[in-house]
Amino acid sequence: MIEVRGLSKRFGRKTVLKGINFEVNSGKVAVLGYNGAGKSTLAKIIAGILKPTQGEVRVFGKDPSTSPDARKRIGIATHNPMLYGELTVGQNLKFYAKIYGKERKIEELADRFGFSDYLDAKVNELSRGYLQRVSLAKAIINDPDLLILDEITSGLDLAVRRKVLDVAESFNGTLLFTTHNLEEAKICDTFIVLRNGKLLYNGNSFEEAVEALNEVS
Amino acid sequence: MRFLELAKKDLRLELKNKSNISLMLLFSLTAAFLFSASITEPGRIFSPLLLIIFFLTGMLGYSASFLKEYDSGTIEGLKASPLTPQEIIAGKMVFNLFLMLAVQTFIFPICYALFDVEGNFALAFTAFAICNAALSVTITSLSPLLSHSRAREMLLPVMLFPVIFPLINSTVVAVNAALEGFLDFERILFVVAYSGIILSLSMITAERVV
After folding, report:
1. Staple B7 to which of A16, A194, B95, B98, CB 3.0 to 4.6 Å?
2. Domains and CATH numbers, chain A
3. By a Cβ cutoff of 8 Å, what residues of chain A touch chain B?
4. Residues of B in contact with A53 (CB under 8 A)
5. Band of the pLDDT at A21, cuts 50, 70, 90?
6. Looking at this predicted complex, what is its ipTM?
7. Residue B157 belongs to domain spanning
8. pTM for the full model?
9. Under 8 Å CB-to-CB from A187, ≥6 apart: which residues?
C-alpha cells in the first residue's frame, strides 16, 4: 500500500528527510519523532502534497503527487486545518465532498464528530478543538483507504483528543499517525522512528521504538 | 468538471468578503476619475487609459485568489485532493474571468461617459472584453510561478509587463478600430492566440509550479 524507497527531501539547503526506506501493507502505523524529525514532511509527501527531492513514494502503486486516483483514496488531517475561514463549516465540507465526488451527508458527519450546532458557523469563529473535529471530518469525507493524521492531537483538550483517538482506533483502513505522544502511539501496531530525517526504527515492538526514540535524547 | 467547484467556492468567498471586487472597483474608479480630470480630451486616448486601469486592477485582483490559497495553507487541501494542478489553474481562471467581466461591466460605461468618447460602444465593449479576458487568462497563468516567492508583489508587475506588452499593443489597436465601427479580427485573433499559448505553457508546467 505505501512503499517508500530512498526518499530524501530538501528545503533550500536543509535536508529534512535522508534516504528513508520502508513499506506498509496495512494496519496502524505510528511515526514517532521529536520536533524537526521530518514526520510532517513524510506525511505530506505520502499524501501527495509535497514531492520528494530524491527517491520514490508509491501509494496504492502510484505516485501520490501526480496521481489523482491515489489521492482520491487518501484522507489527511494536519495541524493546519486546510479549511476556508470565511466559509461556514457546512460550505467547507460540501466543497470538499464535491471535489472528491462523494455525495456524503454532511449532517451525519457533523453528528458523528459533535459539531452539528456549528454547521452554519464560519470556520474562523471556531475554537481549536472544533476546528480539528471539522478537519477530521474533512479527512474522512472521501471514505479513504489510507488515513493520515499528522500531529492532530497537539494542543487539544482531553475530550477532543479522545474523539480523535476513537476515530483513529475504529478506522478500518490503513492509518498513518504521526505524533510525539507515546501514549497515543499505543493504538498502533507498527512503529517508525525518525530522528533528524533519518529512519531509526521500523518494526512492531513499541518498547524497541521507545528505546530508539530515547537514544535520540 | 471539478474545477468549476473550485471557481464556485472562490465566488462564494468573494460574495462573502467582497475583498477583491471592492479593491478592483475602488482602484479603477479612482484611476478613471483622476485621468478624466487631469487629461484634456481623454477620449482620444480612451483605450490606452482603460488598459492601464485594467492592467493594474488585474494585477491587484487576478493573482489574489491564488496567493490567498498559499497564505492560508488551503493550497495543501487542494493538492491533497484529486484536483490536478491544471484543474486548480482552470478553476482560478474561471473565477477571474467572472471577476473581470463584473468589473468591466461596471467600469467600462463609466469611463466611456467620463472620457467623453465618441464611437461604437457595443463593439468597443465586445473587443475590450475579448482582450481583457486574454489579459485575465495571462495574469492567472503566470500567478502560480510567483506564489512561492517572498517578493511576489514586486515581482509580479516586473515579470508580467514584458509578457503582456504584445497584448496591450494589440488591444489598443483593436479597441480603437471597434470605436470606429469595425472589428479588427486580425488583432483580436492574435490576442486570443497569444493568451492561448501562455495558457498552454502554464498547463504544461502546472505540475511543477502549483
Report:
1. B95
2. 2-214 (3.40.50.300)
3. 44, 47-49, 66, 68-69, 71-72, 74, 76, 78, 80, 82-87, 91, 95-96, 98-101, 138
4. none
5. very high
6. 0.93
7. 2-209
8. 0.91
9. A28, A30, A165, A168, A169, A177
